[in-house]
Amino acid sequence: MDLEQRPSWSKGDLRRLGEALVIDRAATPDDCPSYGEVMLWHNELATEAAIRIATELWAATPPNQLSITARAKTVDTLVQKLQRQTTLKLGQVQDLAGVRVDADMVLTHQTELAEHIAEHFGAARSRIKDMRETPHSGYRAVHVWLALPAGRVEVQIRTLAQSEWANAYEDFAELLGRGIRYGERHENADVRLVVDKMHRVSEIIALREKVIDAAWEAERAIEELAAEAALDPMDSLVNENGLNTAQVVGLGRAQLAELSETLLKVRSQIELFVQILRELRRDLQEEEEV
User: Fold this and answer.
1) Could you tell me if 147 and 160 are in contact, meaning their C-beta atoms sit under 8 angstroms apart?
2) How far apart, in whole angstroms, are the C-alpha atoms of residue 97 and residue 117?
3) Strands 151-159 and 97-103
4) CA atoms of 77 and 182, how far apart (whole Å)
5) Sign of CA dihedral 25, 79, 170, 93
6) Helix, strand, or coil here: 279?
7) Average pLDDT, stretch 217-223?
8) Which residues, at least 6 apart from 184, have a Cβ–Cβ distance to it below 8 Å?
9) Which of 78, 174, 211, 257 has the highest count of CB atoms within 10 angstroms of its CB?
10) Structurally, what CATH architecture does the domain formed by 11-160 represent?
11) How far is 232 from 20, CA to CA, in rounded Å?
């Protein structure tokens, strides 16, 4: 698909289609495309955006391979969204085309990857929405919202732990009611307890990811200093404590070495949460099949 090509329908056509779908999800007003046509277009749009992301050599690409998927919004989830947000028009729905990018990466890589994606598609056509400090019902990620001539695309960028949490919570929502994804208070006290515990798990994961990220940033800064010291054979730069660059590098490396055991425990805790969430998903999916 050519991302610069506009679809054959107008904004007015989409508005009328959306209004009709809220009343009857099988409806297609006269002179409007069917939602099947709209969905097919946005599926191709999402696929093309995903291909662009997968084939670009991002400077911020983490060492582990990216997991990239694409999809168009189904009519059921679309209608639910339009019914929840009564002022939202079909043409304004950002995630009609969705791309998901998951990877085992630190938070800094996640931020840099979002910035590179936004830059690639054009700063004027991109907006980054960081949902890590202000999560939505426990959901944490960095989204890049694209407004292209071919349509709107939402690119969701998530760490491995963020992804596993989101997938498990989605499965809970399918089983217990999708309202929990949007902050709706469930009438059942046991369900509310499960939701609260899942939100707490999201908070714990976020705190541990911050620790790992801070250590990674410190290690990068130390190695940059080491590179600078290598370019200055006389090592003439001295800080306020009377230490030259090489001494600062040595001190920094020693401090990181002392923290290595703690960092290993934090990483192990995150890996444990990921494993628990995966097992939880399997149990929930088996429950749905029953």
Assistant:
1) no
2) 16
3) parallel
4) 13
5) positive
6) helix
7) 81
8) 177
9) 78
10) 2-Layer Sandwich (3.30)
11) 70
Rounded to 5 degrees, φ, ψ at 63 are -65, -30
127-177 per-position pLDDT tens digit = 999 999 999 999 999 999 999 999 999 999 999 999 999 999 999 888 888
Please list, residue by residue across 245-277, b when 16 or more beta carbons sit within 10 angstroms of its beta carbon and e when fewer do.
Answer: bbebbeebeeeeeeeeeebeebeeebeebbeeb
Sequence-distant (≥ 6) Cβ neighbours of residue 254 within 8 angstroms: none
Let me know: does 54 contact 68? Beta carbons within 8 Å.
yes
22's tokens: 């809220």
Model pTM?
A: 0.87
Q: What's the rounded Cα separation, in Å, for the pair 266 and 278? A: 19
pLDDT tens readout for residues 116-129:
999 999 999 999 99
Dig out the tokens for 159 from the structure: 């760490």
Query: 189-230 and 160-176 helices cross at what angle (nearest 10)?
Result: 170
CA atoms within 13 A on the CB side of 72: 16
Domain boundaries, the chain: 11-160, 189-289
How open is the CA angle 12-14-16, to the nearest 5 degrees? 70
Residue 148: CA atoms inside 13 Å, Cβ hemisphere, count?
A: 27
One DSSP character per residue, 148-217 reads: ETTEEEEEEEEEHHHHHHHHHHHHHHHHH-GGGGGTPPPS-HHHHHHHHHHHHHHHHHHHHHHHHHHHHH
